[in-house]
Amino acid sequence: MDIKAAEKKLRDKLAEEVNRLESIEQRLRGTHSASFGEQAIEREGDEVDERMEETVIREIEMIKVALDRIEAGNYQTCTSCGGDISEARLVALPYTTVCIACAV
Ligand SMILES: [Zn+2]
């Protein structure tokens, strides 16, 4: 499998997710409007942003783990059984750490 291409894809995705996280955090830290009605609407938006923030943070963690695995040379090695993770599986799930047999 083309590890270099996989790594590039992961790095691009990481940069994208970091940007997304920054804009979410900027929105969450933004100053709130004065009127009570507008504040209620903004708070609802904040809840959505907070959930999105958690998802993005989790995704960033998974990408970092995958990049660490590439660096360590065990990207294609299943953490559970030590066997190979198939290329098709890694293309479909670039952050997976287990082979198909261990995933079920
Ligand atoms: Zn396995």
Would you mind describing this structure in some detail?
The protein is mainly α and 104 residues long. It has a domain of 72 residues. 71% of the residues lie in helices and 0% in strands. It is built from four helices and no strands. Helix 1 runs antiparallel to helix 2. The longest helix has 37 residues. It is elongated, with a radius of gyration of 19 Å. The protein binds zinc ion. Zinc ion binds next to helix 4.
Primary descriptors:
single chain; 104 residues; mainly alpha; 4 helices; 71% helix; 0% strand; binds zinc ion
TL;DR of this structure?
The chain is mainly alpha-helical and about 100 residues long.
What is the number of E strands? 0
Q: How would a crystallographer describe the biggest sheet? A: none
Ligands bound here? Answer: zinc ion
The portion of residues assigned to helices is over 70%
Look at the structure and give the mean pLDDT: 92
Order of helices and strands: HHHH
Separation of the first and last Cα atoms: 23 Å
Q: In percent, how much strand structure appears in the residues?
A: under 5%
* Outline type: elongated
Number of helices: 4
Radius of gyration: 19 Å
Oligomeric state as shown: single chain
Question: What would you call the structural class?
Answer: mainly alpha
Low-confidence stretches: none
